[in-house]
Amino acid sequence: MDNNKSLPFIELIGNPLENFYQLGLKDRSTYKDLYGHLTDLLHLPHSKITQILMPFAQTFFNPITKNYPELDQNIIAYSEGLEVNKNTVLQSLLIPEAISFMSKWLPGELLPIFGCSSYFFIDKTHENIGHGRILDFPVGQYYSKNERAILYRFSNSNKIFSFQTSGIPYPSLTAMNDKGVTVALHQKFSKSFDINGIPIFELIYQILKHCSDKASVIELIKSSRSITTWGLYISFSDGQILEIDINEKGALFNEFNLKATSPLYFNNNLIKQNPNLLIQPYGFNNYCKMREKSAKQKLKKFSNSASKTDQSILKIMSESSNQKKIKSKNWNLDCLTPASLVSCTLTPSSGKALYILGDHPKIYQGKILE
Q1: How much of the chain, in percent, has pLDDT values that exceed 90?
Q2: Are 118 and 233 in contact (CB under 8 A)?
Q3: Which of 63, 72, 124, 312 is least surrounded by CB atoms within 10 angstroms?
Q4: Which residues contact residue 289 at a Cβ distance below 8 angstroms, ignoring those fewer than 6 apart?
């Protein structure tokens, strides 16, 4: 990828089904590599396990939309644009769900490990609430070569802005709406699994589409059950922050007031480490703790800086830590990883988003796109 290029921008206006179809048309020549690589993530080192897993996964994906007719219609419209079967799209969107609950049956397997981060801050230029985001997922160039921004201006919906890539029609990874709500999705791991739960992409879409404040988000979350465990990190224009772990039994919430505790950092650790539910990839807890220590050092640098803006925190977030002079006992993993696909900030009150362009990992190289 050319590090000097701009980010493709798509604006979708009006009827959702028509627009998902048109988005499918746009993605028809670019989606295949991403979908192929996502399917490869289910191929484990042991071929016999993979032979069992793949038919199960396909059986699992097929009936998901029967309880969610709006999701079903949107996926059908997008798949018709792509000229593929609906289940091809659905399988690719649900593979991250499968990876989370695979540890329930395969606790010793080498599952992909993720390093998502959310930084919440106050931009002192206009006292706006900001959400810094690092998206981490092992699809590499298959994401970055077709990355883009989309503005959804659908009928009977909040306006939604999202960073994403070709093949993903929903604004459910890193997004904000015009009511001042930002959402970042973080991978979690546990035994949690319910085939009748709502796909996490659909839940986040409904949050962005309909919610305008903390109370409306909590009401929607409390009425929902997800397929497996996920972390949602949400900010609001009044400075309220929600940390949510949602699974098939409900949700756990932590609430913060950014105006009293700014800045804040979160990654992939569960809110409550329940030994009866916890099956994580080996070393995952320490992996998260080390990244949290690195983040706190970066936030200390931000807090001590003269310029506390979205520009300055994005630069700090996206700089690779120089640990050559650090003693081994103090060494920690950086919050950026080789699989960091997105590094950005969202400040909905000012209608502003900043983005690090270029190949992954998204390391700051002197340029920020606004």
Answers
A1: 62
A2: yes
A3: 63
A4: 269
Whole-angstrom Cα distance, residue 161 to residue 108?
39
Q: What is the pLDDT of residue 209?
A: 97
Contact assessment for residue 22 and residue 12, using Cβ atoms and an 8 Å cutoff? yes
pTM: 0.92
55: preceding bond cis by omega (within 30 degrees): no
Q: What stretch of H or E contains 257?
A: strand 250-257
Between helix 69-82 and helix 16-27 the angle, nearest 10°, is 40
pLDDT single digits (tens) 265-309: 999 988 987 655 556 666 778 888 889 999 999 999 999 988 899
Helix (H, G, I), strand (E, B) or coil at 159: coil
Residues 246 and 228: their CA atoms lie apart, in Å, by 8
∠299-304-305 over CA atoms, to 5°?
95
User: Strand 264-266's sheet: what is its strand order?
Assistant: 264-266, 117-123, 128-136, 340-347, 352-355
Burial class of residue 253 in the structure, from the number of CB atoms within 10 Å of its CB (0-12 exposed, 13-18 middle, 19+ buried): middle
Question: Rounded to the nearest 10 degrees, how much is the dihedral formed by the CA atoms of 80, 182, 237, 124?
Answer: -130
Residue 132's identity, in one-letter code, is G
**What element of type H or E holds 151?**
strand 147-154
Distance CA 168, CA 334 (A): 28
**Residue 71 phi/psi, 5° resolution?**
-60, -45
| Whole-number Å distance between alpha carbons of 218 and 223 | 9
Question: Worst-scoring range by mean pLDDT, 17-26, 64-73, 273-282, 355-364?
Answer: 273-282
User: Computed from CA positions of residues 15, 16, 20, 21, in that sequence, does the dihedral angle turn out positive or negative?
Assistant: negative
3-state secondary structure of 184: strand
Q: What is the pLDDT of residues 95-115, one digit of tens each?
A: 888 776 665 555 445 455 668
